[in-house]
């Protein structure tokens, strides 16, 4: 059973590396056109150039910050204009924020983490939904986390943002189901990405990885395949759901 997204237009945030990059590549492999948004210009352009070398100009590089409503809205509208509408969206951009106790990490870390992980998704969905209504429906996947179902000590802003994201997903799914827009989330476990393997973060990654029943880190491509399935018509009766992809991580709680 193949996932065929031919003729569909997708928009992906945080698409220059890690899970977002894998999602952009997988959707292109399934036949979708796409706008890819990220903050880092060089990494973003390299990803989109690679996509277009295979697919003949079907990807659009959109540099910007999702915590700015103006920037993310403009990126979505440019994608819809370039490819004749918007049908699919993946709100993936996110950060872990600083580690530490809540009173130590302070208001700047709180605002930055919420700005990207929660505000950025809400801002993106506002315009994604507007564009999808114009074409009669669509499918949105928000990337949450296993930490939306449990806690990660000394990352209070991150945990709060991901718990809230599940609520946003479910609430919006209920509101737009009758309009033909499906809204779901995927909660990855501990995935091998530049973020999780970065200096200062790898110690946390190793600590979490020791609790995974399958005995290994997940790969970005495994999340991307799950996202493609949920976006597609193969999961057409699914909305307001959160799919945990974690190698059994939550089973060890």
Structure characterization notes:
The protein is of the alpha/beta class and 253 residues long. The protein has one domain (9-245): Rossmann fold (3-Layer(aba) Sandwich), CATH 3.40.50.720. The chain is 46% helix and 17% strand. The protein contains seven helices and nine strands; from the N terminus they run βαβαβαβαβαββαβαβ. A seven-stranded parallel β-sheet has the order 3-2-1-4-5-6-9, sandwiched between helices. It has a two-stranded parallel ribbon with strand order 7-8. α1 (18-29) links the parallel β1 and β2. α1 (18-29) packs across α7, α3 (69-83) runs parallel beside α4 (102-134) and α4 runs parallel beside α5 (156-176). The longest helix has 33 residues, at 102-134. The protein is globular and about 45 Å long. The model has no long low-confidence stretch (mean pLDDT 94).
Counting copies of identical and different chains, the oligomeric state is single chain
> Which regions are unreliable across 5 or more consecutive residues at pLDDT < 50?
none
**Largest sheet data:** 7 strands, parallel
CATH class: Alpha Beta
C-alpha end-to-end distance = 34 Å
- List how many beta strands DSSP finds: 9
Helix % is 40-55%
CATH architecture: 3-Layer(aba) Sandwich
The H-and-E topology, N to C, reads as EHEHEHEHEHEEHEHE
Radius of gyration: 17 Å
Structural class: alpha/beta
3D shape: globular
Full CATH superfamily name: NAD(P)-binding Rossmann-like Domain
- Total separate domains: 1
Number of helix segments? 7
Average pLDDT confidence is 94
Strand order of the largest sheet: 3-2-1-4-5-6-9
| CATH fold label | Rossmann fold
* Portion in strands: 15-25%
């Amino acid at each position: 059973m193949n996932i065929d997204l031919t003729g569909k237009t997708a928009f992906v945030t945080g698409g220059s590396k890690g899970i977002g990059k894998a999602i952009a590549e997988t959707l292109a492999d399934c036949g979708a056109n796409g706008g890819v948004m990220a903050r880092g210009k060089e990494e973003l352009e390299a990803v989109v150039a690679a996509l277009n070398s295979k697919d003949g100009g079907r990807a659009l590089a959109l540099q910007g910050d999702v915590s700015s409503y103006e920037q993310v809205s403009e990126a979505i509208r440019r994608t819809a204009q370039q490819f004749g509408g918007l049908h699919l969206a993946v709100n993936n951009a996110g950060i872990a924020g600083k580690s530490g106790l809540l009173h130590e990490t302070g208001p700047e870390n709180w605002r930055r983490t919420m700005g990207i992980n929660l505000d950025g998704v809400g801002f993106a969905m506002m315009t994604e939904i507007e564009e999808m209504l114009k074409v009669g429906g669509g499918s949105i996947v928000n990337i949450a986390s296993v930490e939306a179902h449990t806690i990660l000590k000394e990352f209070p802003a991150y945990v709060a943002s991901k718990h809230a994201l599940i609520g946003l997903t479910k609430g919006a799914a209920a509101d737009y189901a009758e309009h033909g827009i499906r809204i779901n989330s995927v909660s990855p476990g501990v995935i091998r990405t530049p973020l999780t393997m970065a200096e200062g973060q790898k110690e946390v990654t190793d600590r979490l990885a020791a609790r995974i029943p399958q005995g290994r880190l997940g790969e970005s491509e495994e999340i991307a395949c799950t996202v493609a399935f949920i976006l597609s018509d193969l999961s057409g009766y699914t909305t307001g759901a959160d799919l945990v992809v974690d190698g059994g991580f939550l089973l060890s709680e």
